[in-house]
Design brief:
Layout: E1 22-23, E2 34-39, E3 42-47, E4 56-59, H1 60-71
Antiparallel strand pairs: 1-2, 2-3, 3-4
Organism: Streptomyces aurantiogriseus
Protein name: DUF397 domain-containing protein
Pfam families: DUF397
């Protein structure tokens, strides 16, 4: 896993107007999952139950560290 200084979140000036949100293929039919949008050098994550709420923004490097940590059981 990357060192903590390599993990950064994106600034809040990322334009979300053209975001194309998608759900995981593992999501059920209910609206109870997270959605992700790729935005250039950033990734946005939001709760599908509350799409009007401001999403979490991450640099793509931080998102890779997060997903890798989850996949390898380091993050639960």
């Amino acid at each position: 896993m990357a060192a903590p200084h390599d993990v950064t979140t994106a600034t809040h000036d990322v334009d979300l107007t053209l975001a194309r949100w998608r759900k995981s293929s593992y999501s059920g039919g209910a609206n109870d999952c997270v959605e992700i949008a790729e935005l250039g050098e950033h990734a946005a994550v939001r709760d599908s139950k509350d799409p009007g709420r401001r999403p979490l923004l991450f640099s793509k490097a931080a998102m890779r560290v997060l997903v890798s940590g989850i996949a390898h059981g380091a993050i639960q």
